[in-house]
Amino acid sequence: MISKLIEGIKKKNAPIVVGLDPMLSYVPSHILDKAIKEKGETMDAAASAILEYNKALVDAIYDLIPAVKPQIAMYEQFGVPGLMAFTETVNYCKEKGLLVIGDVKRGDIGSTSKAYATAHLGRVSIGSSSIAAFDEDFCTVNPYLGSDGVKPFIDVCNENDRGIFVLVKTSNPSSGEFQDRVLADEDSTLYEAVGFKVSEWAKLSMDGEYSNIGAVVGATYPRMGEILRKIMPKSFILVPGYGAQGGSGKDLKPFFNKDGLGAIVNSSRGIITAYRNEKYEKYGEKGFADAARAAVIDMREDINGAI
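-> structure tokens emitted (307 positions)
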């Protein structure tokens, strides 16, 4: 699967993934008002509004980017209708030729971990039929429970040509409370130990020069990104934290290999709420999708100029 992502990055000259993380407060009022008028003040209305919002955004940017990354929590907050909107968003993005990275951060052990992996990356046998549930191409995985939690995902990836991104060094300010702790017996940090483990897991699912087993490393920590790039040479790095969280193009070079590959950079609010940014205010609320397109183009120029 990683080879398909690399192909998309090269074709569009854009190591970019857009996070489809719609809070209801992000949705332009004309879309939300219409949904409430049709369905009342209900979860169905909320789900309908975010789906319409997503589709308009995707229509505006699908030709510029290789992938999207919907964060499932933004949909789960609207219950079953929200999960249906998540599924329809995934399907719509695939119809547009985009790869989908499900930001689900799952992690457990044994049969539970396998069930999570099957739900998001695999297929369920029902009678004589084999059916995909959410059907993402990649998903994010929490490695806190160790190999018992990650191996089931790797098995499902290998069975279905899918991939995962393992949380290694996240972009949030408090990540260091645990991830930066020094392990006395190894004289290295916890995030480095996880990185070495990801490098080991990567060998179990190679797809050309890179592995289907990638890592999540925040743009807000470029020095740590440089360290981890060396530890995990065959793993693609999913880089959150660009834009709204403070990361910029100049911070990103350490995340890439000398071949210009090896990383894909995420922006969520910076794209999907670009119409609220002073830089793009000329588009107005009804031009939210055009503002998002302009923001993607600017992001692409910033990143490519830096790397």
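The chain has a mean pLDDT of 95.
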